[in-house]
Amino acid sequence: MVAKLSPRWTYDAAIQEKIIDVPELVLFGFDEIKSALPLSYHKHDGYEFVLVERGKASWELDGKVYETKAGDVFHTCPGELHRGGFNVIEPSRFWWFIVTPPQREDWLRLPWHESESFTSALQMLPRVRHLGLQAVQGFRNLGDAINSSSPLRSTSIRQAILGLLLALVQPNERMVSLADDLTDQFDLLLRRIEDESEWRPDVEELAGIVRVSPSHFFRTFQSYTGLPPMSYIERMRIKKACSLLAESTATITEIANRLGYASSQHFATVFKRIIGMTPVQWRMSQ
């Protein structure tokens, strides 16, 4: 069962026993990271799909950054160079799988005309598609099928993959990320947090903006983003710092002042705690 996972779990057809009857599955995995991790440019031979379950992650492809939050799926096509936004993956919990392109006959045991339909649908797929957290169960089903010893293991794996692909290319309009009427207000608030990196509100102020009690706000915010409000705000501020370090010639002190830190030393301490290296080291690595 995949229900109780370690912080990282992966099936890799290149190094593990191949699933003979499902050669289309290249990679499947689950990851839960507590602090930002480096993720530089790389590419795959197949289609990659990444579902964010908790937190928020950004991805960079062709010079454009794509933001994803809980319930969003980001995908890349075969051969596309991509990386984490500014070379890092933010603290988050996510699932992913990679499948070969539907170019061969009998792909996932489908008739040729259906494989062609998938080819067309995948080519038209938006870079980020919102499926909602219900999609997590589809990934769990795939993980359970991979770990199964049933004689119908291969059939279960194909069924799980096709279920996920169908959800992506013809999504259910009723799917939502959270059954909460505060979703729109939270999205506006998250946008403001990103846009106003120097803003330092407390939980009471944030709760007042969306007109709920501080305790309800704290629980809902953490459920929606995967992080407590203050941790989320700090990480968004450091993400902005990464952007400024990479795209400007501003000094460390100037960046610290712009982001509202009391000193460049305090800024450097927080930056290293989250990113794993000092601002100077990070800038030199770009």
| Tally of structural domains | 2
- Gyration radius over CA: 21 Å
Profile the largest sheet.
Answer: 8 strands, antiparallel
N- to C-terminal separation?
40 Å
Helix content: 40-55%
CATH topology of the largest domain: Jelly Rolls
Low-confidence stretches: 173-180
Shape: globular
Q: What is the string of SSEs from the N terminus onward?
A: EEEEEEEEEHEHHHHHHHHH
What is the number of E strands? Answer: 10
| Text of the CATH class of the largest domain | Mainly Beta
CATH architecture label name of the largest domain: Sandwich
Annotation field: number of helices: 10
- Fourth-level CATH superfamily of the largest domain: Regulatory protein AraC
What structural class do you assign from the helix and strand content?
alpha+beta
Give the amount of beta strand, in percent.
15-25%
Describe the protein.
- Keywords: Activator, DNA-binding, Transcription, Transcription regulation.
- InterPro entries: AraC-bd, AraC_XylS_family_regulators, Homeodomain-like_sf, HTH-like, HTH_AraC, HTH_AraC-typ_CS, RmlC-like_jellyroll, Tscrpt_reg_AraC-type_HTH.
- Residues 187-285 form the HTH araC/xylS-type domain.
- One of its GO terms (molecular function) is sequence-specific DNA binding.
- This is Helix-turn-helix domain-containing protein.
- This protein has 286 residues and is of the alpha+beta class.
- The protein folds into 2 domains: 8-169, Regulatory protein AraC (Jelly Rolls); 183-285, Homeodomain-like (Arc Repressor Mutant, subunit A).
- Helices cover 42% and strands 20% of the residues.
- The protein contains 10 helices and 10 strands.
- It has helices at 112-123, 135-147, 153-169, 183-195, 203-210, 214-225, 229-247, 252-258, 264-275, 279-285, and strands at residues 8-12, 25-33, 37-38, 47-61, 64-69, 72-76, 82-84, 88-89, 92-99, 128-130.
- The strands form 2 sheets. Strands 1, 2, 4, 5, 6, 7, 9 and 10 form an 8-stranded antiparallel β-sheet that branches. Strands 3-8 form a two-stranded antiparallel ribbon.
- The protein is globular and about 60 Å long.
